[in-house]
Amino acid sequence: MTATHPDAGLVQRRHLVTELPGPRSRELSARCDATVSAGVHVALPVFIAAAGGGVLLDVDGNSLIDLGSGIAVTSVGNAAPAVVSAVRAQVERFTHTCFMVTPYEPYLAVCEELARLTPGEHEKRSALFSSGAEAVENAVKVARHVTGRAAVVVFDHAYHGRTNLTMALTAKVMPYKHRFGPFAPEVYRVPFSYPFRDPAGMSGEQAAARALSVIEAQVGAGNLACVVIEPIQGEGGFIVPAPGFLPAIARWCAERGVLLVADEIQTGFCRTGDWFACDHEKVVPDLVTTAKGIAGGLPLAGLTGRAHLMDAVHAGGLGGTYGGNPVACAAALAGIATMREHDLLGAARRIEATAWPTLTALAARCPAVGQVRGRGAMLALELIDPATAAPDPGLTAQVVHACHHAGVVVLTCGTDANVIRLLPPLVIPPDLLAEGLDVLTQAIITATA
Ligand SMILES: *Cc1c(COP(=O)(O)O)cnc(C)c1O
Questions:
Q1: Do 320 and 365 belong to one domain?
Q2: Which tens digit of pLDDT belongs to each residue from 355-379?
Q3: Does 269 sit in the ligand 1 pocket, CB within 6 Å?
Q4: Mutation test of ligand 1: which of 235, 303, 411 has the most ligand atoms closer than 8 Å to its C-beta?
Q5: Which secondary structure element, helix H or strand E, spans residue 255, and what is its range?
Q6: Residue 432 vs residues 5, 63, 310, 362: alpha-carbon distances, Å
Q7: CB of 305 within 8 A of CB of 311?
Q8: Which domain holds residue 387?
Q9: pTM of the prediction?
């Protein structure tokens, strides 16, 4: 361990001094309603004043346990000391030049880290952007440009963003797509591997064959630029495909000149106990998108791919005013250094080792917990009606509400909104994680009693 502490100096405890939301948060919520679009939904209207390690401190003085990391973003902790000092130093030097106008070194250093850390030993090039959706869009642009083909294949339950092209790639209509079309054409959706819902015993290879037969019948490899895939699905329900699924899709793509785009925006940067989720089965994608956990909370996204693909694009074809902002790059470099120095790969694996027995014991005791799944510090519970195995979004909402009011921030996901996902900061103290899991366990037991 280095001299820096990952908790930014906040007391690491759950401590409630008002009901949640407290009076000051309720005042701010009223202001929010009068000024922020109702289209921007807030899961828990508790306004935050400070955060660090595994806690969120609200404006009423309540201290909440954070099991969401702002949707898998603050993996190194909120206001992580190394990130704060790197950001401060960079802000004092300069805040923006636009890399496309006059460049700067931190952008290069982030691209060098991406080349080192993303799967595969081949020569790589990267481009940086400001949001995950932008990285995914640019992956499709590169794939279409180099292949000269238009079609893009995505999967059931996929989530790739909210821009026009990425809405087309995203599966779930409500709330992401409803009345926002028309959507970009030439996007085709095929079944993912969903072990909990697939026919019993279906292997990863069989699930891949099911998807590939749809592609061959309805798209044709010769028309297909790329397959865009989350190696573990995020928003769609933390669905871990059966072993062999990802490698079989990758093999099919490689044999046909179809590019494999791994969307590692949620799974990347130590979250699953590897640098990237593709590493688990040694799959090497042609293009990889990154964002979320990359920069300790600052907005940064990356597209990294084989050099001959990324360099095939004409000069000026990729970019954006803010892409690879120097402050965000400084944050990413400090964040990645923190991941190495504090062994956050090991931390993610230890979180799994702590949480898995608790969650599986809960599932054994409580038939409404249909499945425990995930990897590393990306874990989930699928809640069902035990009689029919049908998704139970009502129970899910009730459990999440109970956790929130007890001061534990958990998130939901899933096409049917019946999955509780756990994405703790990788620096969460073990006793705080255990306490958060206790609250969740009690909430589920009470709700199903
Ligand atoms: C969050 C997410 C995106 C979109 O990222 P934004 O920064 O919100 O645009 C894309 N893909 C996956 C897998 C994600 O989890």
A1: no
A2: 999 999 999 999 999 999 999 999 9
A3: no
A4: 235
A5: helix 245-256
A6: 16, 12, 43, 18
A7: no
A8: 4-79+343-448
A9: 0.97
